Amino acid sequence: MKKLLFLLICTLLFIPTIVSAHTELTGSNPANGTIVKEDLKEIVLTYEGKIESLSTMKLLKEGQEISFVSVTPKENQLIGTLSSPLENGDYTVQWNIAGEDGHPLSGEILFQVNKIAAAPNTTTKQSETKSKQEESKKETPKPKQSSNEQSQSSSLKTVITLAIVIILLIGAFLLFRRKR
């Protein structure tokens, strides 16, 4: 009985390390929810561990896909190169990777490009530009929860669940021990 209980506890203690072995997104350029104000010709996603060559990403503007010249996985980064700088607007990067352990992960990053145009000649153009900028700020979507935040939340739930199970097992062990 003691050996079985010891084996069960050891197994439960090792589960969080197995679960947390997945590669997570640790950063991106542009970051999730940012407003980019200069030319952007490259999107870089950085992960916690090495990613496989099967990893891909898509860039969407208002539901329309914008093609990358190349999407290159290098060690722990996925780099998407564009043929020309992005125009003003709201963008979504949808990524799918295979981590070093082979598990597929996916997520998306939302950002906005809002480059300041050349100085207009008339005040009418200036007021139009300001009103358009104010409208775009109001319409900016709230960024979705990133995969990193989701995986941290998932890890916390796993740890809490395991702690409760361990406490219940110890309680059951002590209860049965007293009855003998």
Task: Please provide a brief summary of the model.
This protein folds into two domains: 25-117 and 138-144, Sandwich (Immunoglobulin-like), CATH 2.60.40.1220; 145-180. Helices cover 38% and strands 29% of the residues.
Structure commentary:
This protein is an alpha+beta fold and 180 residues long. It has two domains: 25-117 and 138-144, Sandwich (Immunoglobulin-like), CATH 2.60.40; 145-180. 38% of the residues lie in helices and 29% in strands. It is built from three helices and nine strands; from the N terminus they run H-E-E-E-E-E-E-E-E-E-H-H. The protein has a five-stranded mixed sheet, with no helix packed on it. Strands 1-3-7-6 form a four-stranded antiparallel sheet, with no helix packed on it. Helix 1 (2-19) runs antiparallel to helix 3 (147-179). The longest helix is centred in the last third of the chain and has 33 residues, at 147-179. The chain starts with a helix and ends with a helix. Residues 135-151 have low confidence and may be disordered.
Could you outline the blueprint of secondary structure elements for this entry?
Elements lengths: L1 H18 L5 E5 L5 E2 L5 E6 L8 E6 L2 E3 L3 E5 L2 E5 L7 E10 L5 E10 L9 H17 L7 H33 L1
Helix pairs in contact: 1-3
Helix content bin: 25-40%
Overall domain count: 2
Secondary-structure class: alpha+beta
* CA-atom Rg in angstroms: 24 Å
- Architecture of the largest domain in CATH? Sandwich
Which H/E pattern describes the elements?
A: HEEEEEEEEEHH
Count every beta strand, where a strand is a DSSP E run of 2 or more residues: 9
Proportion in β-strands: 25-35%
Large-scale geometry: elongated
Q: Whole-Å distance between the termini? A: 13 Å
The CATH C-level class name of the largest domain = Mainly Beta
Q: Describe the biggest sheet?
A: 5 strands, mixed
Can you tell me the residue ranges where pLDDT is under 50 for at least 5 consecutive residues?
135-151
Mean pLDDT: 77
The helix tally amounts to 3
| CATH fold type of the largest domain | Immunoglobulin-like
> Strands of the largest sheet, in order across it?
2-9-8-4-5
